[in-house]
């Protein structure tokens, strides 16, 4: 196996610090792999190889002078195309922004640089970051490194694919509907969706000075949970305006052994059934925990109606996703909404109403969301971790038909394409942290990930859980064809 390509970022930082490998050698190694393998995968779609080599040489020179640039000294990264790097375009897969070249690094990129990392390139996304797949008219389609005929997920699909293929040591993505977690699941890597609001969204943008949207977060993907923890320490904390008066102090993981935990398990749900294989992985994790001595329940649930909770998420999500609608589109949607039966609670009706939601009704919806958050607070008074699926199946074949025509086949039954957002939305809607970790391949040889969820601001609890459970069941494994 290519030990350098698939090592964790912290392992590589240690190798650089002890001069076992230079930053330039490591950077060239990743560049060589991208040039050799990325033609069929198409993950790293913005390449800054020469700049990366120069930055690696600067890191090596600093080390020779006895200087430390930070915990990621000399470590090469890739990063989601939606982040801002000086001299590169951030398009979000939207053709109108193909010449949107940044003059300066954004906040997240600056923070990673301050920690010693540098960037070999940027990774592919779906148009407007709005799909479980990663393709767009500017950069084309990204394939899953385990099987390029399957999706790597979205919207951080290129991020997950880059890590799984051994193209970089660390990644950062964003998540409003599973966009960090479903690529982690599909590619067999680790991904963390932070508690809402603790990582600024500045520098993850098409145009500057846009306020942070509701629900959406930035966060890391990695080949190991320790890397997630370090990346969170780098990314989290107030933006400069707020830093004048406050700082973030996330509580450390409050357990030493998996046996100390109280764990609730939610393997599937009639509202969004997952495949037997996916549900069985949740149960498998539960069985491992129970054998270790943890307190495990498969009946504990937060005290709310899950269907109501999902409609609340759909409403708040689509109110965010519809902000860019043109006036004529708003008029058409409003006419459709006016024609609806007030009792119609179908997904189509809920999403349409959300697209033209008044501010008054948004406030009312937000109030209902607060009741859900209070219910989660009470739940996590009794339980430390919730284990549940992230997606309904392993990586599915590319499907570029209009959204309304797409379905997901789950054990022979076609489900609506976006029905599986139930599992992401439960967590996103109430601003909870969640870490997806790999559990091994499916019968088709594709990764299956599971998410560990906890109370707000308990991010380091879920990351530590992912680290410890990986010691029991195994962690990242490279795709066979790329080892």
Record keyword descriptors for this entry.
eight-stranded mixed sheet, Amidase signature (AS) enzymes, alpha+beta, three-stranded mixed sheet, 16 helices, single chain, 483 residues
Task: Kindly describe this structure.
This protein has helices at residues 3-6, 9-17, 23-41, 49-64, 107-114, 157-165, 181-187, 225-235, 240-243, 276-292, 306-321, 327-339, 347-355, 359-382, 421-428, 459-473, and strands spanning 44-47, 76-80, 118-123, 135-136, 140-141, 171-175, 190-193, 217-222, 262-265, 295-297, 385-389, 407-410, 413-416, 434-441, 447-453. It is of the alpha+beta class and 483 residues long. Among the domains are: 3-257 and 473-482, Amidase signature (AS) enzymes; 306-370, no CATH class. The protein has an eight-stranded mixed sheet with strand order 6-8-7-14-15-11-9-10, with helices on both faces. A three-stranded mixed sheet has the order 1-3-2. Strands 4-5 form a two-stranded antiparallel ribbon. Strand 14 (434-441) and strand 15 form a beta hairpin. Helix 3 runs antiparallel to helix 4, helix 11 (306-321) packs across helix 14 and helix 12 (327-339) crosses helix 13. The radius of gyration is 21 Å and the shape is globular.
